[in-house]
């Protein structure tokens, strides 16, 4: 008689936080994307490098640009039917400045943060 090992339960983190917001800042641009973690695909993204957004911004790298990117990303998420995202901050990122601008404007657009 062969005794099989118990079946592993599915990873609960995949169900609790399927969409993760990640931000990237360079000296020239601001970009943010939401990743669907179970499939490791980009669900939605926004960047100050987009040609449609550049004329409407004074600068592509300051806090105002970060706030605009967050607002656009929030609107795109709601259009795709994604009501909530989790925020992933790198070790050196603090909730201040550009990071705060992106997160607050995503929240103001109507997306819940987990």
Automatic annotation (TrEMBL):
Any one GO CC term of the record: ribonucleoprotein complex
Listed CDD domains: Ribosomal_L18_L5e
GO BP field: translation
Keywords from the UniProt entry: Ribonucleoprotein, Ribosomal protein
GO molecular function: 5S rRNA binding; structural constituent of ribosome
Keyword Calcium: no
Superkingdom of source: Eukaryota
Gene3D superfamilies: 3.30.420.100
Pfam families, alphabetized: Ribosomal_L18p
Keyword Lipid biosynthesis among UniProt keywords: no
PANTHER family on file: 39S RIBOSOMAL PROTEIN L18, MITOCHONDRIAL (PTHR12899), OS01G0256600 PROTEIN (PTHR12899:SF6)
Similarity comment text for this entry: Belongs to the universal ribosomal protein uL18 family.
Protein name: Uncharacterized protein
Source organism (scientific name): Eucalyptus grandis
């Amino acid at each position: 008689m062969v005794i099989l090992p118990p079946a592993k339960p599915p990873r609960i983190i995949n169900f609790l936080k399927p969409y993760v917001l990640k931000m990237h800042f360079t000296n020239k641009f601001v970009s943010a994307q939401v990743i669907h973690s179970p499939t490791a695909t980009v669900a939605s993204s926004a960047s100050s490098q987009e040609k449609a957004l550049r004329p409407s911004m004074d600068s592509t790298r300051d806090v105002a640009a970060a706030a605009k990117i967050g607002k656009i990303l929030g609107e795109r998420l709601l259009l795709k039917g994604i009501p909530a995202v989790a925020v992933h901050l790198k070790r050196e990122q603090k909730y201040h400045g550009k990071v705060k601008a992106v997160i607050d404007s995503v929240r103001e657009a109507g997306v819940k943060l987990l």
